[in-house]
Amino acid sequence: MSLQSFFNPKSVAIIGASRQKGKVGYEILTNLVAGGYEGKIFPVNNKTDEIEGLKCYPDLASIGETPDLVIIIVPAQYVPSVMEECAKVRVKSAIVITAGFKEVGPEGKKLEEQVVQIARRAGIRFIGPNCLGVIAPAHKLNASFGGDLPVPGSIGYISQSGALLAAILDLANANGMGFSSLVSIGNKADVDELDIIRAFGVQKDTKVIAGYLENIADGDGFVREAEEISYTKPILLMKSGSTAAGAKAASSHTGSLAGGDVAYESAFKRAGVIRCDSIKEQFDFAQAFANQPLPEGANVAVLTNAGGPGIMAADAIEERGLTFAKLSEETMKKLAEKLPAAANVHNPVDVLGDALADRYEFALDVVLDDPNVNSVVVLLTPQAMTQAKETAEAVVKVIEQKKKGKPVLACFLGASKVAAGVEILRRGSIPQYDSPESAVATLRVMVDHIRWRTRPRRVVRLFSVNRRKVESILERHLRQGLLDIGEAEAKEIIEAYGFATPRGSIATTAEQAGNIAQQLGFPIVLKIWSPDILHKSDVGGVKVGLKSEQEVKDAFDLMMYRIPKKKPDANILGVLVQEMVRSSGKEVIIGMHRDPHFGPLMMFGMGGIMVEVLKDVAFYLAPLTAEEAKQMLLNTKTYHILKGVRGQEGVDIEAIAEGLQRVSQLVTEFPEIKEMDINPYVVGAPGTTAIAVDARISLEKK
Ligand code: ADP
Ligand code: MG
Prior knowledge:
Blueprint: H1 4-7, E1 11-15, H2 24-34, E2 40-44, E3 50-51, E4 54-55, E5 69-72, H3 79-88, E6 93-96, H4 106-122, E7 125-127, E8 133-136, E9 141-144, E10 152-159, H5 162-175, E11 179-184, H6 193-202, E12 208-213, H7 219-230, E13 235-239, H8 244-247, H9 253-257, H10 262-271, E14 274-276, H11 279-291, E15 299-304, H12 307-319, E16 323-324, H13 329-338, E17 349-350, H14 357-369, E18 375-380, H15 388-402, E19 408-412, H16 419-427, H17 436-454, H18 467-479, E20 484-485, H19 487-496, E21 504-507, H20 510-520, E22 524-529, E23 542-546, H21 549-566, E24 574-579, E25 586-595, E26 599-606, H22 611-614, E27 617-621, H23 626-634, H24 638-643, H25 653-669, E28 673-683, E29 691-692, E30 695-699
Parallel strand pairs: 1-2, 1-5, 5-6, 6-7, 10-11, 10-12, 12-13, 13-14, 15-16, 15-17, 15-18, 18-19
Antiparallel strand pairs: 3-4, 8-9, 8-11, 20-30, 21-24, 22-23, 22-24, 25-26, 25-28, 26-27, 28-29, 28-30
This protein binds adenosine-5'-diphosphate and magnesium ion.
């Protein structure tokens, strides 16, 4: 069902409308009237006949027609019966403003569930409860108690916090920022963030989707749909809070490092969602996306009437990884013909402190024509002769008349002396920034976004593997209720997915250990084998570099003597006798932690026992493409060590990227794998075989 009646209803009933100033039931009614809403308004209140000159109805049924939208403001305990009333007269859309539901505890939660049930049964979609309402300026609809109706614009806003939305409205109204719609989703008992984002996705007047979210219920759906929408409408989100289930009770390295926000971070990246850290940043970005075309490349030109801010912009361009555009000979020649001799015709183009509007107009026109320029930042400082207002008019004129398809961002520095100019810019849809740095930061995300949109199609490589083998090992473990898979069997699993592991086998006596060692050849590694010991080194359960049969036997006896003392409850089955990997390679970790909302989250980092100390790790959602696997490597400092520093030979980077993709395939094909680590994965020089020296896997019942 379309959510259009929430934004453009032909009639609105307000159940719980009030005559009393200061009450929400009064504020919403008067906001609706003050906003100039042109549809029918039906206040419902059984204690009065009239509010603010509008006829009042004792209940929904007595209105005599079905309102397109019903706003519910009655106390929480009456909301279920009001929802029943809505069902009776076949209402399709409602907003429950009332608070006192899930957010107050178990009683409220029950009440909320009751309301959801009634609504679902009747096919009613509702926003809330515990929300501020809905605002749609183009339809003069202010169905909220958040503040005044802002001007119409092309930004659709969604907020999980009503209070924050009120602040945003206030700020937007002060800046004259325009919106297509604003929605406070409250407890999102029925309509959730994805429903609204989807609605914004098809709304004609919404060009940019922005919002504040605390959590996303359907992670998979969000990634899929947001990715689709991001191709045509940029999505800018502030996100607070962290996944509670993230770091909690994680037994693997990956799990304990995957806390906080990493899943959201990679979900946003995959879906092309632009993350904003503050309201200011969000406004900065949103006004550019809403009003300016995307730049075709990273080359930025700067136009200024003073040296200082020009240098600030140049620094910011460098720091943000953009390119300082090199102007063509022709451009510089044209500029030199008309600008004073002292002007700088190289980027940053300095039209000098005495520049009037005409110099800006001329220079902007010429610079925008340069094929080496993808975007322009126009800087202005209010000096003695500066014409802030006229310059703003000139900038708007160039853009409107020439329509060059390149973004132009303004930064008029100062306050009262540039205010008239800033107002002209705003009306002319030229984004204005309070610092060169903010303008450049905005260009950076625009460039990133166009790169995201034009990136090659994602192709996930499928390796030929022995899926059957893994199936049978997992099935056996699940059947026996064994959720932790130790080194020996975890290695059988990853071998089936193409990993090489050290040769070795299991021994239950010192004699047997010695014999196996003889067959494998020395040096030898001995490791404790117990389903109850996850981190073997922690209990002295790993002995490397054993050089003779006698050493192996002694090490066996020592482990069997010491470890039961440290871990009296552990069921010790024996030891793993393993060949020692004598690689000059580096130890890295490949891991996966299944996020409850977004699914398998892959991890890469420097391995061995230092991983949790250094925390130099990168995460990304599976399934990984080759490109994404490599990007994960690039996102760590470890990468530089692996590549080889100061004459040291580098290791086989491709082998690591392939290992990541193979694990990604494994965990995508087996959703019962909850977490896993290959740590260490020992990688040597290119051409040598990388070896998975240790692995562990934990399962969950599906
Ligand atoms: P755990 O992580 O349970 O403590 P590991 O099997 O990872 O146990 O062993 C700990 C460390 O011992 C590894 O990080 C690695 O440096 C070294 N090691 C273990 N097995 C071998 C092996 N077969 N060859 C070389 N080094 C090994
Ligand atoms: Mg290990």
